[in-house]
Amino acid sequence: MAGLIDTDRAKAEFGRATVAECGRASMKRDRQEIELIKAVIISLGAVLALAACNPTPQQQAAMRCGASTAGGAAVGAGLGSAIGGGKGRDIAMAAGALGGGAMGHRMGC
Question: What percentage of residues in the chain have a pLDDT greater than 90?
Answer without folding.
Answer: 10
